[in-house]
Amino acid sequence: MLDETELGERCAAVMKDARQEWMRLRNLQRHIDGKVLRTWMPDGADAEYKDLLDKSGGPWLGFSRDAIAQGCRINGYANEDIWNRVWRANGMDGRQGVSTKEAVGLGKSFLMLLPADGDQGVVMRPMSAHNTFAVYADPWDDFPEFVLYRVGATKQGPTFWNSQWYAFDSEGSYRFDGSPSTPQNLRPTPHGLDFAPVVRISNSLASEGEPQSSVEPGIPIYKRIVDATFALQMIQRYGAFPQKWGAGGTLGEVRVAIDSLIHAPGEAGETVRFGTFEAADPTKMVAALEAHVKHLAAVLQVPPHYLLGAVVNMSAEGIAAAESGYHRNIGDRRDALGEGYELALRTGARILGESAAASALTDQVSWANVQSWSLAQVSDAISKLDVVGADLGRLFQMLPGWSRQDALESAGSAKDKKMLRIAASSSSQPASQALS
Length: 436
Hints:
The chain has 436 residues and is an alpha+beta fold.
């Protein structure tokens, strides 16, 4: 185990790289949250102009991230014992959403696994990529060499680095306060493992560099959406209503009301004229805004009707065609995310001392069905495939809203009832027919 001096030296060596990475991720997160960043503004812009600009942002990237992440929900694992003792025992059915959304949005997230106190269990918790910096000896290693995690700021912490911290290495975990370079109140805890028990959940398995975000390519289009939204608001505020004008003579104070007549006294021989400017047409800007949103949907492989909320008389085949790119996209995401989650479950098995489960590289997670299939379509497919002897456990997983456990339990029940019907049918036949 490291002492305070050794830990401080280890942390100080990664602080610069950690800060650069965290700043990059925080800037990306602000775009995902719909903030308006570094937008040009004319000199002398008034408060009304600034207010319209602030309202022009929107969580378009965040909504796209959620749409992708919601299609990547794990509902089972091949090893039921590890699934129950590691995943469900830590409430990961609910916590996985946080980890998956962050992985899709930022490119990566992390899971911490530590031996539980006393009962030989496992503690599994998501760790935000905003505050986690992992150092790998080789890019293809399963586990990092060293991990620095910022738990949160202390009450006395006026700066970013004066916080509460967690560090991990192959010997143990370290809780401490203050700056990473000068740890205070160090609380080391050996974990008895020969690796740092932190697993990275990657959105993409890049051949080099950091895993890629699914929504970062949409940032330029998001900025165009902000510009189009701002232009639409300017038209609504200043150009959608006809502006009045008057020329000639002495106009005096002109007041406009629904039941009043505009008039001016004018001098003898003067001609006073009134009129209106042509109102702007906001429908053209609405069409431009929708075009930008459709561009965003195309680049991020999210169905346009998810973002625009426009589904009018679409058939099941039409919806399936519109969502085909989306399902190919989440298929790629599942391949990458699944590797991280499976490694986490094998790590949990390793902590539990289940060597067979820890080395079972063929055990896979199963994913919830998010296809836009009707219950009638699925039921018809199950009936036809059951006739040719397909496994009911797999078939029932096609049912919308059914978990892997629901499917397996129902398959077992259906199989038992089928055997009873066969036995009853055989017992009711004459002996000659039963023998034949």
